[in-house]
Amino acid sequence: MDTQASDTAAKPFPWVPRWRTLLSSVAMARDPIGNLDRAHAHHGDTVGMHLGGVRPIIVTRDPVLAQHILQKNHRRYLKSDLTHGLIRYIGRGLLTNEGADWLRQRRLIQPGFHRQRLAGLTRLMQAAAEEWTQELRTRTAAGPALLDIHEAMTRVAFRIISQATFGTGMSEAERERLSDILTQIQAFYVRTIRQPYLRPWWHLTGSYRYHDALSQELRELVRGYIRRRQAAPNSQTHDDLLQMLLDARYEDTGEPMTEDRLLDEANILLLAGHETSANALSWLFYLLATHPQEAVKLREELQAAGLANRPPAFDELSRLPYSLQVIQETMRLYPPAWIVDRVAQEEDEYQGQRIPKGTLFSVYLYGLHRHPQLWSAPNEFRPERFAPHAQPPVPAYGYLPFGAGPRLCIGNHFALTEIQLVVLETLRHFTLELPPNTASVPVPLITLRPPHGMVLRFLSV
Ligand code: HEM
Question: For the chain, what percent of residues have pLDDT higher than 70?
């Protein structure tokens, strides 16, 4: 990126002095959220700083600027190398692609996420939810059980996204290997962003080579699976995303996707739909454990809808609005994707201020969601903020857990549905609480993933 241009761009916005970002770069790597919150409280809603003391970036929690970048002027802003760096490991799919090629792929893939398709996928979401409650039943048979909910939800979310993508034919061992590879790649990638000064060391010690090999293994695993599917004569009977990707044809040429394309898109879905949902579910259970009244309200809603004794069907989920509000409020307090990056592709202007080409932006969703001027009692868990006709209403562009504009998350309804099903199935059978003597509240760090897991206590109802 053009550093000089960015420095000029930054002038209209206040900047954290460079010596300060240099001094606090370790603290920033350790606790980015705390540091960004302090910078905004001190300098205002949009503030420039140097990432790691080196790289200029403008971080905003201004809803109007968020809309400007993500929606109104989205053509002028592409994702930055912070996202594109993933291409090395996962390939060029919807999340990492750009421009006309991205649009063509999005149009091709979007129908796979339509309501009717989703209804078909809820059966396997429900099966994953039941498998999880079955496991809980075994664990709680002799009394209350302590469980790392983040570990459990990572498994549940991966089972759901991998089966939605590849169907139920994949073996447990294959699925576990896929999950393990993706987790390792993701963890390493986040480190390369957070601690760029260690990159030479990782080159030297073979970490890059090791993760490149993992990414190759991932591709070959998925390639093998796709080929098995293509060779199977009864391909019409599959109702999963892979089959949709195989059957899809470009409007202009009538051609299907190439195998490598298909691989990239499938891998991107696994990556994008895995940890995000697991984190949302983990924080949701944490919030219910610490807000028993809200858990009671959820059960009452199930009872009133006549759904206390069986799982809801897809069409019945809309009869459970409070459960949706609880999920929305969880993702306000703990947005699983807490920043969204963009870089200006050409010169732009915002409220009379010149934004030179090359300016790097981070839309700080966590800050937007807890902005003291946008939300009353911003740090409190109040699901009814999302009730229809609630006053004050949800602020425009102040709530963006799935992003905004044309790059809005393609899996948003998928995610909301799986979360709703897993939570309701759990609450039908169990109550939960923080273990006695829990010393401290978990503090979200880099990926809004609970830093040391999250242990909760489950009891059979
Ligand atoms: C709670 C769960 C989820 C959250 C919070 C979430 C959040 C997001 C956000 C914020 C973006 C936009 C990023 C940007 O603009 O730079 C995004 C994009 C995306 N998400 Fe999700 N996501 C979730 C679940 C899922 C699931 C389950 C899938 C797949 C089934 C998925 C697939 C994608 C894809 C493919 C994109 C890129 C879309 C495009 O640019 O065309 N996500 N997600």
Answer: 94
